[in-house]
Write a structure and sequence with these properties.
118 residues, mainly beta, three-stranded antiparallel β-sheet, 4% helix, 39% strand, elongated
Length: 118
């Protein structure tokens, strides 16, 4: 099975949250750098230490997993449609995923076909 987003793009992964520490050097008061609300001036050293052991899948306030489509669009499990692996690009390009089901000639799985009247 694979998952399709409402925009007909395939779901390719989950949104992950990982904390990291961006290494910095502090600048003097007259030197250029990024200023924070505390008025400390600093430069990023270009390296970030990632805390991979804290990695987790992003969830909505309701506890639903956040998934990403091929273009990085965010969707929850309520938004996506599961389809057989043989669900091809023709069906995905149709704006309406609803339709009758028929057997796939190559694998025998059910696939969606174009609804009548199109």
């Amino acid at each position: 099975m694979k998952a399709i987003a409402p925009n007909n793009l395939e779901i390719t992964g989950t949104l992950e949250v990982v904390r990291g520490r961006g290494l910095i050097t502090f600048c003097g008061p007259d030197e250029e750098g990024e200023e924070t609300e505390g008025h400390l001036s600093f430069n990023l050293d270009g390296e970030t230490e990632m805390f991979w052991e804290e990695q987790r899948t992003a969830r909505t306030e309701e506890g639903l997993c956040v998934f990403l489509d091929e273009d990085g669009g965010e969707w929850t499990e309520k938004d996506i449609t599961l389809v057989p692996d043989c669900f091809g690009s023709y069906e995905r390009n149709q704006k309406d995923l609803a339709g009758s089901a028929e057997g796939c000639e190559s694998c025998g799985c059910l696939k969606r076909c174009e609804p009548e009247g199109r």
